[in-house]
User: Fold this.
Amino acid sequence: MLEVKDVCVSYGNRKILNKVNLRAHEGEIVGIVGPNGSGKTTFLKSLAKYLIPDAGSIYINNVNITEMDNREIAKNVAVVSQIVSIDFDFTARDIVLMGRTPYIKGSEKPEDIMIAEDAMRKTNTYEFKDRMVTELSGGELQRVIIARALAQTPKILLLDEPTSHLDIAHQVEILNLVREAADSGLTVIAVIHDLNLAAHYCDSICMLKSGEIVCTGQPETVFTEENIRNTFNIPVEVNTLKSTNSLYIMPLLKRVSKAG
Amino acid sequence: MNNMTDTKRHGKSILFLLTACLAVVIVSNAAVGSADISAMMVAKITYMGILEGTQNTLSHFVPSIGQSPVWDYLSLTKTWPPKYEVIVLQSRIPRVVLAGLVGAALSTAGCAMQGLLKNPMADPYIIGMSSGASLGASLAMLLGLYVQTTAFVFSILTIFLVYNISRVGRSVPIDTLLLAGIAVGSFLSAFTSFLVYINQSRDHVIFWMMGSFANASWEKVGTSSVMIIAGIILLYRHAWNLNVMLLGEEQAQYLGVNIEWVKRYILLLASLITGAAVAVSGIIGFVGLIIPHITRIIVGPDHRILFPTSTIAGSIFLIMCDTISRIVIPPENLPVGIITAMFGAPFFIYLLRKRRKTIYA
Assistant:
């Protein structure tokens, strides 16, 4: 379980997060939404102890993360960052094995290889395990990075816009993967820009604006026309899709005349 | 073995091949010189030298072992004049071994620096080591101090200075480190130039700064080998961390690497082995820049295989360059630093053109 209590983070004098609170349980996907610059990425970075809060505390299973070293954090928290490009000729398998870093002293053991290859099978990356990561497509690379995160056998998975540069089919593929990971007992915190996908995949939503939480709760309670208009400064219409019973959010746009 | 990828198997056989090459290179290069001694004879003399050395050392501790008949079985009949023994064992072999050690040190340190700084321009000297060592050496020559020690101390002091200038709180940003290294390097170089200018016997300083093994001796091998070998082995232990750090510092931290600690540790080790090498040979450029690039092209970026191949390839390269420096204008000993660049650069340019792809990946 992840518990965040009154966390404040700033870069120099600029306050980025102000008294953020959050609670996330096993098997849950918590979606972080909010406009650009609202502090979403900063929030994830502080959860992985890459940024140290000025105030407040973060607990993983009731242990304050300030009491954990990098190795201990990496055993508990895996991060899939926004843009990952790898310029070096490592194979996909090498990269996934790097997920075992917090467990490895010296070189990998058969157990590490087993766990890494298992993570590759779960993410459908095993078939290209010997290909160079420099030659993979965006979707393939993202799956490799998620496999690397799973190879850490973490309790908490942090995702920063995991699908932002992927096409719609790959977005769904990645999010299905994340859903499976959560169902197997992980706690997932994901920054997701696409509100519709967030509504469909997340168990709860945390809406940020200017470093403060506007509201948290189930997608249905957070994604109201009023909340979205106030947070993103754009009028929207929220409907329910008949086929899947999930929310459907569409900005109310001015009519555009199209040529032809 | 099916879980070992092709590149790694490939890398291991290359490493094996290189190690065999190194043995051949040591013997054959020791056969080159004004006295005509065949490679076979060099091998025999070296073998007997090692054998007698081992016998003497062992019997020093356990006298009965020295009397054992085993030694006679292992011995060869000495078919060579005693002066050949002196030439091979006291002059040529220490020279080849020293060149090999220095080549290994510079190449391994260069490999570590390129990995750590993620910069293809990086070499062992990039953050000011050579400038510090040169200042130390020229100061020592002017004041009559012991050159080897002064050069070593100055090079290490330079690294501490650069490190502390770049430090922001508890972390050291790589870009700042590089820039501070260049700035401190230029500053120290100015003092070196000044010292060279006022020194009456400036030829020595200039010669030293071009690097040479003309004054090689077992004593120099002895003083530098412990630090170089220990440093290289300790660097190997960070191969995995360096691999992970190629993904970027932020990613490396997410994977549990204590990046600031690793950075400090690698900088310190690379500096120590570079300092030890420079102290006994002067400033030899190019080895630490080019050899890691060449091995990276051949075996890939995995430091677990890249490190040992660079070490051995560096040894071979510098031994060969030193031999060339002895035979170009006999009996002159050209500074080996001239040879490394004169012969290494065209080869590297050839590789650059042949690959036609970004070289640093």
In short: Chain A touches chain B at residues 48, 50, 69-75, 77-79, 81, 84, 86-91, 93-95, 98-99, 101-102, 104, 106-107, 113, 117, 130, 134, 148, 152 (CB under 8 Å). Residues 2-223 of chain A form a domain with the Rossmann fold fold (CATH 3.40.50.300). Residues 165 and 202 of chain A are 20 Å apart (CA to CA).
